[in-house]
Specification:
heterodimer, A: mainly alpha, MetI-like fold, B: mainly alpha, 8 helices
């Protein structure tokens, strides 16, 4: 069987005065901006919740655990529908927010549960002596976290955070369900309009892989610069 | 404040809309777990075989699948199966094939780590007893490997169950679709999505609690 490639499909007009190539470029931009914004939301919330889960005091730990369980045990697609359909009805202040913002929240909160797990594990992997040393120096709990525990913990969790960042790019594809004009929605619509699904899917898949790979390289660079001197990974 | 009306979710609605989708979600999960672990084990054995011509394709397959969003994989199979076979097989069957293919990549990584966690002395002991490669794998290595990785396998299965909701992309009728359809017909989308979330949540939380208990019970004492 010989397949007739037709890559010129990307130069065709999509009916609104732009080519499919331009549409795909803009869709890639949406994928990257949804992922980047969600990544920031997830990092902030995840660090906060993950830290809370290691703070002495049952109340903090319980609420941190509840957060993680809640956002980890509902499928992302269902969470996106909840943010899109249910939350604006529940919280009038959120009515009229663009779908982009809601999807960023959905993806960010969903990923924050996973990042909280990584941060908690990172903090708990530190020797107990570090915390005690901070207290022995007369630091308050907040100061111990700020100056002793968190700077170490964040360097420990960079590798798992890398795979989370790559997961966010992959998971952003679910935003198609609420009509965010990102790569997956582009793939579905362009496939339908042009019937050149194979070319279009190949291009979109390549863009996803390229995005994830760039994130991987960028994080490897950060990781190399942030290694803790004196550890096996950071001997210099 | 929101006034919810859950009254329309009576047994009749549930059997008419939700049950069918729930059964499909469970079937999809079941087949994908069984097929994924079977093919995943083969992939893992290929990657650990020490033969380049087996290792390289298995590695490319596992890494390739894991770097593409699942939704795109679902779309790819839905496009390619009719293209290659010349006939359309429907969204549900296409979803089943996709999930087996996709999940074997993830399970293969788990199985590989599980096999690597078995102490090397166990392999030598098997060889010393005169076992062939297949016997050694089946009677010595894999039983210990699966016991080590059971909690991770089950955790992956919970993720898999959640991911089945993504068959939405090709319009297959699963649990989420059942709730959505009911919500649409009765003009109650908010209640439908909330209930869907509660059902997924309850199932996943009970499974993960079970995994935790199992983990405590199963750890191999050395």
């Amino acid at each position: 069987m010989k397949y007739q490639w037709e890559w010129q499909v990307f130069l065709r007009d999509d009916g609104s005065g732009r080519t499919y190539l331009e549409w795909m470029a803009s869709a890639w931009g949406w994928t990257l901006s949804v992922s980047a914004c969600a990544w920031i939301v997830a990092l902030v919330l995840g660090s906060l919740v993950g830290t809370l889960r290691t703070v002495p005091g049952k109340g903090w730990q319980r609420s941190g655990d509840a957060w993680v369980e809640l956002f980890r045990n509902i499928p992302l697609l269902v969470q996106i529908f909840l943010w899109y359909h249910v939350v604006p009805a529940l919280v009038p202040a959120l009515k009229g927010l663009p779908a982009f913002v809601l999807v960023v929240f959905a993806l960010g909160f969903f990923s924050s549960a996973r990042i909280a797990e990584q941060v908690r594990a990172g903090i708990q992997s530190l020797p107990r002596g570090q915390r005690l040393a901070g207290q022995a120096l007369g630091l308050t709990l907040a100061q111990t976290y700020r100056h002793v525990i968190l700077p170490m913990a964040f360097r420990v969790v960079i590798p798992p955070l890398t795979s989370e960042a790559m997961n966010i790019i992959k998971n952003s594809s679910v935003a198609f369900a609420v009509s965010i004009s990102e790569l997956t929605l582009f793939a579905m619509q362009a496939q339908e309009e042009t019937s050149r699904g194979i070319e279009i899917y190949l291009a979109v898949t390549t863009l996803y892989i390229a995005s994830a790979f760039s994130v991987n390289r960028a994080m490897a660079w950060i990781e190399a610069r942030m290694r803790v001197p004196g550890t096996i990974g950071g001997s210099r | 404040m929101l006034d919810l009306d859950l009254a329309f979710f009576d047994p009749e609605t549930i059997t008419r809309y939700v049950a069918k989708g729930f059964v499909f979600s469970l079937q999809l999960t079941g087949i994908a777990v069984a097929g994924g672990i079977a093919f995943g084990t083969l992939l893992a054995l290929a990657r650990l075989s020490g033969r380049k011509w087996l290792e390289a394709p298995a590695a490319i397959y596992a890494n390739g699948m894991r770097s593409i969003p699942l939704v795109m994989v679902i779309l790819w199979f839905y496009l390619l199966i009719p293209f290659l076979t010349g006939r359309s097989i429907g969204a549900e069957l296409s979803a089943v094939i996709t999930f087996v293919a996709f999940e074997s990549a993830y399970y293969s990584e788990i199985v590989r780590a599980g096999i690597q966690s078995v102490p090397r002395g166990q392999v030598y002991a098997g060889q010393a007893l005169g076992m062939s490669y297949a016997q050694n794998m089946r009677r010595v290595v894999l039983p210990q490997a699966f016991r080590n990785m059971l909690p991770v396998l089950l955790t992956q299965t919970i993720i898999l169950f959640q991911d089945t909701s993504l068959v939405y992309a090709i319009g297959a009728y699963d649990l989420l679709k059942g709730f959505e359809q009911a919500g649409r017909n009765y003009g109650r989308p908010i209640e439908a999505y909330l209930l869907a979330a509660v059902v997924y949540f309850v199932i996943c939380v009970s499974l993960s609690q079970a995994v935790k208990r199992l983990q405590a019970k199963l750890a191999i004492v050395r």
